[in-house]
Amino acid sequence: MLAARHDDVDASAALALLSAQAVRERANEMLELGLANALPNFSIDLDCLPPAANFIANVIRDNYPGLNVPPHARWRHFVFAGRDLWREIARRSTWPDAAAQARAEFDLAIVSVLLDAGAGAEWRFNDQPTSLTVARSEGLALASLRMFEAGLFSSDPRDPLRADASRLAALTMDDLAHGFQVNARNPIAGLDGRAALLARLGRTLLAQPDVFARCDGARPGGLFDHFAARLGPSVSVPAALAELLIKLAPIWPPRLSLAGVPLGDTWKHNAIRRTDATDTLVPLHKLSQWLMYSLIEPMIDAGIAARDLDGLTGLAEYRNGGLFIDTGVLATRDPALPDQALAVDCEAVVEWRALTVALLDRIAPLVREELGVAREALPLASILEGGTWAAGRRIARQKRADGGPPLKIISDGSVF
Predict the structure, then answer these.
(1) What is the rounded distance in angstroms from the CA atom of residue 168 to the CA atom of residue 155?
(2) What pLDDT score was predicted for residue 33?
(3) What is the pLDDT of residue 2?
(4) Averages of pLDDT over each 10 residues, the chain, 416 residues
(5) CA distance 252 to 132
(6) What was the pLDDT predicted at 4?
(7) Is residue 67 within 8 Å of residue 373, measured between CB atoms?
(8) Measured distance CA(231)–CA(370) in Å, rounded
(9) pLDDT reported for residue 402
(10) How far, in Å, CA of 154 to CA of 225, rounded?
């Protein structure tokens, strides 16, 4: 009986880590330790935050002169030279109702985001319909859109614009290699990890028909119906993220778990101490939060209100994190660290990513002040889209010929 109660406590602690609140709390704790000069890998110079905010504000002005910045979402990556390629595809399609279109858009967003880990500096996607050659995240987005349009993820040739659990579970590395145009001269990082991630997604959907097969078969888009049924006509975005993290927990590669609960994008850092089973654990949930940001617009278009968007955090990824290194806010204690190949679970990377989340919260009000706008007009999601991510890319190009991040990360296709 005592052991059962102990397991219940650990399971409750594990579920608490599957939340944006836990990400923000432990990231801010990491920042406070850094400001106290108590971290092993990075020092922090907050005097560099205002000039960094000025740089971000200028990037926003360049990209959005009217300061009408859309929220961070995968949908932005389907727009090229003013053409919204997904909207063009959607206009040629027919769905019986708004919910059916939302399921299709959930299918696309979930698959596309899960394929969005770093591609590496060498990979390119050549898109014949537009004659575009695109790299990195936009290239991954465009490639995934074309795969979706061609029905690669559908088990019904008559209905290509969907992703079915059975098809995802059977997807092979060769299928993705063909879709991403991978060859010896066009390598992509983490291809095996991406294929395995989608296969685990398919199996996870099949194992939870009560969540993912409420209507029209087991598919990622079943999460739309789950949100509508469980969270109602006005959805708390952090609550939706918690549902997403719990229901999709089995898709992640074998990593840390607690009381049988997979913790996903959660890692260890010895500076974060607790007296319970979550001691040293640092949740980040980058891809899951990026996915949640990308599911908001389909929900709204289908008539479901979304609230508390700022309850999500900034994203612990290499563009945002690279921005803080490249602007001097963060500095590596070991000058040789940028030359090393770093695993995603090493303390330096965990520290960097957590500091990134906390510093995004710190810099957001400074960016708004630079632009003279209120939080309501420029929420964190818009600062990520128009500012920090784009600014991280711009300064990386200025500082490094390949435009890569300041740290070399070994990608497994499921984190960065």
Answers:
(1) 9
(2) 98
(3) 39
(4) 57 94 98 98 98 98 96 94 94 94 97 87 94 92 97 95 97 96 94 92 96 93 94 92 94 90 95 96 95 96 93 96 98 97 96 98 98 96 95 96 91 70
(5) 32
(6) 46
(7) yes
(8) 37
(9) 87
(10) 19
Interhelix angle for 286-301 vs 98-114, to 10°?
160
The CA distance from 244 to 305, in Å, is 17
Q: What is d(CA 374, CA 362) in angstroms, rounded to the nearest whole number?
A: 15
For 204, 222, 338, 352, 370, the CA distances from 330, given in Å and listed in that order, are: 39, 41, 12, 8, 21
Q: How many CB atoms neighbour CB 34 within 10 A? A: 22
d(CA 191, CA 411) in angstroms, rounded, equals 10
Neighbours of 195 (CB within 10 A): 19
Domain assignments of the chain as residue spans, ordered by start: 2-410
Looking from the CA of 74 toward its CB, the CA atoms found within 13 Å total 31
How many C-alpha atoms does 227 have within 13 Å on its Cβ side? 32
pLDDT of residue 416: 63
